[in-house]
Amino acid sequence: MRAVLSGDMPRSRVLALILAVILVALALAPFLFPGVRTVDTAARICVFVVLVASYDLMLGYGGIVSFAHTMFFGIGAYGIALASTHMGRGFDALIVGAGAGALVAAALALVIGLFSLRVRAIFFAMITLAVASAVAVLVSQLSGLTGGEDGLTFQTPRALSPAFRFGDSLLGVKLNGKLLVYYLVFVGALILFLLLLRVVNSPFGRVLQAIRENDFRAEAIGYRVVYYRVAATCLSASAAALAGSLYAIWLRYVGPDTVLSMEIMIDILLMVVIGGMGTMYGAVIGATLFVLAQNYLQALMGSASGLVEGVPVLPQLLSADRWLLWLGVLFVLSVYFFPTGVVGRLRQGR
Amino acid sequence: MTQAPDHAPKMARASLAHRVAPWLPLALVPVLAVLGLAAIPSLSSWLTLTISGLAMGMMIFIMASGLTLVFGLMDVINFGHGAFVSVGAFVGVTVLLMLGPMTGAPSLALNLAALLVAVIGAMLATGLMGWAFERAIVRPVYGHHLKQILVTMGGLIVAEQLIIVLWGPEEIYIARPEALKGAITFAGAALEKYRLVAVAVGLAVFLAMRLVLRRTRIGLIVRAGVQNGEMVQALGYRLRLVFVGVFMAGSALAGLGGVMWGLYQEVITAQMGNQAMILIFIVVIIGGLGSVEGCFIGALLVGLLQNYVAFLEPKAALISNIGLMVAILMWRPMGMIPVVKAK
Amino acid sequence: MSEPMLRLEGVFTNIAQYHILRGVDLEVPRGRVSMLLGRNGVGKTTTLRTVIGHWRAHGGRITLDGQDITAMPTPAIARAGVGFVPEDMGIFADLTVEENMVLAAVSGPIDSARLDWVFSAFPPLKTFWKSAAGNLSGGQKQMLSIARAMIEKRRLYLIDEPTKGLAPAIVATMARALRELKADGASILLVEQNFAVAKALGDTASVMDDGRVVWSGAMAELGRDADLQERLMGLSMEAR
Asked: CA C188 to CA C208: how far, in whole Å?
């Protein structure tokens, strides 16, 4: 167990329990919560756990703010889509697409990182914001290649399609390709998460944290701060791209709104801060809470807003569409008061 | 008064190249305009594009100037600056819509009066909002860039959502005042009246800002504070107050820019400020964080390039600005006019 | 004896986790030049920065002419009558000499008689009145730094190593200016590494070691007594 988690234990009984529950729920999601929507929610959680964990590597461990994380996510997703479109449905296309996506993402991260981190860490935040939006515009303009605003729908290998059946049913769940894709996503996400956990607990991860605490001192001790930061950025970018690939395989569709939009970037920020920066497990908690809230809390807010009908402004404030408002407030408050998020709280309260 | 006759002070005379170097970036604007002239076949299109590029540049400058000064003075990077642009646009447009009879009348005086009221309303609102933003969002995270970025981004999300709560989620279309519609013809080129006004306003703001920074005590304090805030305090100035003032003024200018930008596009959305931030960041980075002059030159370059490229190859417009940024950072990694910090 | 202009009682200052000042007791008598001496790194600059409020004292008390300034913000301390010349001179390089001086005259327009006095002490400043301060030579920058403090009449001046790295002729100019400042009625706390200058200017002296004042007395006494110098500044070096 310790080896699987790279020695980074949850260090809180409650946290360990929550993580175990999430793991079991995700592992058995198709059986515990059969239904198209719930399984879709579970798959989204798996993907976002990796995406947010990879962001945490950069933000929580490297101390670098990036606004291009959805760009890397999108690169991985479009990698799958383009490979599947041009090479035909097949596992070779998936492997080529995911591999190429991860490589392109890492290369782009390398260029941006060398360019901006060399001068000033805050340049990175501004430059990534500019580059990411330029890429998003480019993707929607190059409709010949990317399908533009409409995106691309494509076919994955037959074994991963709902039409493929490999048995009748188990515990009332149809044994079809959709089930296989879910487990592909789940296992892929689990492996990626454990790898990221390994990275932050490696000597490399410890140097990163030393840099985050005090970059002058780290530089003085003899670490080339820029190289470490750039390397973290590249690793983080490839992991995000792989998460994007998993997402594309799951959806069998990519489009600017689904994988490239600024909204997703903001979601990632919220998830990592609320879950807990620099903890990795925060990504699990944050992504799970957030995706569940996105799917179910909005309905709750809708009914709350119905209750206060007639009161001025209140219904608008509580309307389901305004949940981002409250998340924004929560976000600001967490940065001030709980910079280590839910995980930090749980570990303190142990 | 006694003289010290044996004292013959000399100052090393800087070489010509050394003295010209700081002004080199300024030459980029005409150079870019000439390059545009070479690339664009017709003189009249070039003139139209140049004016519209300058107009766009001026508006970006107005929006970006506060951000760069706030950074220079207090080392605070405000990712929520775009919120002031959006709020300014919404307040200004609301006022204009209320003054419908004045903007609809074909009288330049009435139109400008309505515009003035709208601008004052927008600047008051965003100035006050800047004060609140500084107190509630920025002050607790001084000296901590990472938290500043996160918290101000959070502030932006909240502000955008509040705009939607107050004004509804739909975009609002707004017609320009009657007398500012249409274009005048000059040398065969159609020049939109509104763009000419935007250029004039931008130039006026820039000159006024330079005047304040060069000729007034408060301007001296700001310029000195950008270089060495600690020493300014040791002389006896309350830099905190000055900073709050600059923050408010910068927010009010962003609000002014928001009104102008909204009228330029003739539609406003809650996200427009955040979208403008992309160009604003490019401008303050290439200008040199903290430098008002650099910000001005950078904004004009971005505006011109964007318009020329959009004419020649529409799809490359936004990418061209990234290219510009890369080129300038390779030339001067700290931006065109780097600010010398004492520490 | 009357209340001293500046008094530090058991002042502690921490910078990050380091205890730099560990109970500094110090007095600057009214109208006198007090030297603050000691080897590098014993806390002289930190003492000055704590008085002006750039660092906060974590313990102890600082009084200016009897008024407690320990917790006051820097601008208020300056307005209470403290002029500060930092070790790095704190010149605003992008501003002209004139603009530097205009800013330094906190209470209003520059007093022309006082400006003439400053010009007579530092003639180059008149010559380069309209030039960017960043283009001045090192010595001229130091002149500007002290001139900025002089232009406003202050009760107490904190001056950190005004002769560091300067040519002997300019050192003499500095010393002359400081003497004039004293003649103007000011009290001065002066950090100085150049012992000859310290001997020539100082009325009283305090020697610091390891975050404390280890000896206080008349500068003349210290200047006469080579053994004492050796013990305070030489011996302590071996004790490390």
From this structure: 17
